[in-house]
Write a structure and sequence with these properties.
alpha/beta; Rossmann fold; 5-stranded parallel β-sheet; globular
Length: about 220
């Protein structure tokens, strides 16, 4: 099963990616992890990546595609793979098609923006241990205090409403157009299925909906 997972930040992609990895015995391929691994290996592509990253530039789509083509030939991709965070833009999606990388499913997890703001904006963190709470879903025993130490909890800058809404605007501008791209592509490609599943509700319910959609 060769899958692309789409969804806004905070939509629950990480939780569902774990379920899909186990269900199909496939690796989750993150472009960030892949870039770091290439640099560590010191391959020709890795040296190109290191040079670009050291100069503060963005790694080109052509290098990313070359890394992906190499990565999916490795043994752990025998049963397929799950792309996490790639593609992010239409040119990247087009480059993936041009490179002949076959896909089985593009899966979108849909969550309204206001729900994502509630999810992320309600998170509170114990800075020293990394313990995470949520003011609605997993509140501490005493408001604003860590259950174990009693230390004050913080709201990370990334979870501030203004930051979350900015990340959502970037998603809608750059990545959301991929939904239309893959819907059109699936209409002309019998091998490719485009599926959209609600990411609102109980985690087990969402997993069941995913499983049903993928049957």
């Amino acid at each position: 099963m060769r899958i692309i997972l789409l969804g806004a930040p905070g939509a629950g992609k990480g939780t569902q990616a774990e379920y899909l990895r186990e269900k199909y015995s496939i690796p989750q391929i993150s472009t960030g992890d892949m870039l770091r691994a290439a640099v560590q290996l010191g391959s020709e592509l890795g040296r190109q990546v290191k040079s670009v990253m050291q100069s503060g530039g963005l790694v080109s789509d052509s290098i990313i595609i070359a890394l992906i083509k190499d990565r999916i030939t490795q043994g752990d991709c025998e049963n397929g793979f799950l792309f996490d965070g790639f593609p992010r833009t239409i040119p990247q999606a087009e480059a993936l098609v041009d490179a002949g990388v076959d896909l089985d499913v593009v899966l979108e997890i849909v969550v309204p923006d206001d729900e994502i703001v509630r999810r992320l904006g309600g998170r509170r963190v114990h800075q020293q241990s990394g313990r995470i709470y949520h003011i609605d879903n997993k509140p501490p025993k005493t408001a604003g205090k860590d259950d174990i130490t009693g230390d004050a909890l913080i709201q990370r800058d990334d979870d501030q409403e203004s930051t979350v809404r900015n990340r959502l605007n970037v998603y809608h501008t750059q990545t959301k157009p991929l939904v239309d791209f893959y819907q059109r592509l699936s209409a002309s490609n019998q091998q490719l299925k485009f599926l959209s599943v609600s990411g609102v509700g109980d985690i087990a319910e969402i997993k069941n909906a995913l499983g049903f959609a993928l049957e």
